[in-house]
Amino acid sequence: MAGLLIVVVIFAAPSDSLQAEPSRSRPKTDQTPAKVTLGGINYTEARAVFTHLGFKAKWDAKTQMLRFSSSAGELVFTAGSREASFLGMRIFLGEPALVAKGALYLSSIDVERFLLPILRPERNAARPLKVIVIDAGHGGNDSGARSADKKLDEKTFTLDVAKRLQRLLAGGDWRVVMTRTDDTYIALPERATAANAARADLFISIHFNAVANGPSVRGTETYVLTPRFQRSTSSAKASPEDKVAQPGNQHDTWSAVLGYHVHRQLLAKLKTEDRGYKRARFAVLRLADCPSVLVEAGYLSNADDARRIADASYRGDIAEALASAINAYSASLGSAARAAAK
Predict the structure, then answer these.
(1) Which DSSP category does 97 fall into?
(2) Are 155 and 137 within 8 A, CB to CB?
(3) Which residue from 2, 29, 89, 112 lies 20 to 30 Å from 302 (Cα-Cα)?
(4) Residue range(s) of every CATH 3.30.457.10 domain in the chain
(5) Is the CATH code 3.10.20.30 the one for domain 15-119?
(6) What CA–CA distances, in Å, run from 141 to 161, 177, 193, 268?
(7) Which residues pair with 223 in a beta bridge?
(8) Are the C-beta atoms of 188 and 75 separated by less than 8 Å?
(9) With left for phi above 0 and alpha for psi between -120 and 50, is residue 3 left, alpha or beta?
(10) Angle subtended by helix axes 312-341 and 154-169, to nearest 10
């Protein structure tokens, strides 16, 4: 926050206080959720938010977890942690869940710009999906990630997946634009500029990952833009850039919905390790003036992931998962449009 690091010290509450969470803070479902400020950050009481949507709550004092369940699935939040389980996927919040006044609270930004948009997309104002921009990461002299044996380049596989996705989307109710169709280098800002020039309604950037000295790391990650006033998933503390509004932040709610469908479909189709649905301020996400998502579909530095990525049929599976996600996202837009017309 403008260079000032605020350290919040949370004293452990007596165990009977935490055990009492379900009864001490069980509001009626028609109540407005309680709000508090903790360490200069606005928080909203979690139980009231999700019970109002039909979830049943259960507090576990031993694990410090508040679990919500319904026919839609399960939500699990842990006191002191930014990581949560959300409808069967691993997600990362901007701020940790915290216990205060005998109840579990979530950052208000996480509730309003990330979680609720996913659970109730029909509450979001929607614009029609007419133009989809597919961005094949890297290219030209930028090879991107490479396999351990240096034989596999990210740029080759991102373009292959992008072209497969383009073919799957062809003939739909939208126009599909590619940021590159060959082995060409395109600067990151230019990719977002191309999307904005095309008046994109959806931007998807395709990547593969690698990590130095971590051959065991594998799996799939999905990123959307970090909301203003929040830390990115990789950030341990606040920084001045957190306060800067980016063009992409105008679309936080629909980016949240898009990212949810993308991550869910990738996990279901690929049966890969869930590395998490995360937030970051990558240039293409910051500058694209539309709902946007960046996919890290696997780790070339992991031998098993690299073997699968090198398989054309597996890259076809990635493209099919992304196409399914875009269709599910389009259905969410349609639901919101119908709700607004009532």
Answers:
(1) B
(2) yes
(3) 89
(4) 15-119
(5) no
(6) 19, 22, 20, 34
(7) 278, 294
(8) no
(9) left
(10) 50
Per residue in 266-301, pLDDT tens? 999 999 999 999 999 999 999 999 999 999 999 999
Level-2 CATH architecture, domain 131-341 = 3-Layer(aba) Sandwich (3.40)
Q: Is 117 exposed, middle or buried (0-12, 13-18, 19+ CB in 10 A)?
A: buried
DSSP 182: S
Residues of the chain with CATH 3.40.630.40: 131-341
How is residue 215 written in tokens?
Answer: 């051959």
pTM (2 decimals)?
Answer: 0.91
User: What type of residue sits at position 217?
Assistant: V
Q: What is the pLDDT of residues 138-183, one digit of tens each?
A: 999 999 999 988 899 999 999 999 999 999 999 889 999 999 999 9
Q: Where are the alpha helices (DSSP H) in the chain?
A: 15-19, 21-24, 46-51, 108-110, 116-119, 154-169, 188-197, 252-270, 283-287, 303-309, 312-341
Are the beta carbons of 254 and 199 closer than 8 angstroms? Answer: no
The three-state DSSP-derived secondary structure of 191-210 is: HHHHHHHCCCCEEEEEEEEC
Q: How many CA atoms lie within 13 A of 295 on its CB side?
A: 29
